[in-house]
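Per reviewer request, we include the raw input and output of the structure prediction for the construct analysed in the revised manuscript.
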Amino acid sequence: MISAAALLLMAVGEPVTAEAALRGLERREWTAFYERAAERVRQDRLEEAALAFYVGQLRGRTAVACRRPPEDEAPALLASFNSVLGEPINRWVGGSVKRWLRVIDGAIAWEQAHPDPATAGPDCAAAREQVGAGLKSMRAEIAATADQIRRERAANGLPNEAE
């Protein structure tokens, strides 16, 4: 768990590219992205963690939605990863709406450039489209409510970075 004090002390630094953050994962299954995200959280490499987390969500949600019926453990595993990693990553990335949007854009672009071999076929096209549209919709909502997000974070004692 990342403390509020640790969040304040983390350097902004240069943006991380998705290509660098996700190198070696191009042909891996969705769980590998959550593993990379957890590793990067432990290393305080949070922008890399966020990129891996969002690509993991794209791939994991697509895999679960595409498989009818879904693999027994996949939906529970996806929910567990999202619960355990989502809270600290989203708490950090949400401290800068500009960064949050950049991370989502990077994750979407990376996944489009490196489609998941497990769900790249035509039988998963509808699931890929639906999951991608969901992340794009979330991105649009974040952009549209940036001021509200900052106010709510401040009211909850969470830091906001200067944009």
